[in-house]
Amino acid sequence: MHIKKILTQHRRDFTATYECEHCGFEKQECGYDDSYFHETVIPKMKCERCGKTADESYRPLKTKYPDGYQI
Fold it and tell me: What is the rounded average pLDDT of the residues 10-27?
């Protein structure tokens, strides 16, 4: 899965549309805007339709604010 579009964001909490690279399945889900979430959690998300996770070509998005930055 990867983020297709961030729909709303308040501080580090966001709601986004996620898309499967393999089958194109889309879902809306919440997330947290830090490097751990983008680099570790998102690539391990399993698609509900095909059951696959991100492949080695996955590239995480940059965070809106640097890690450790107080918002």
Answer: 97
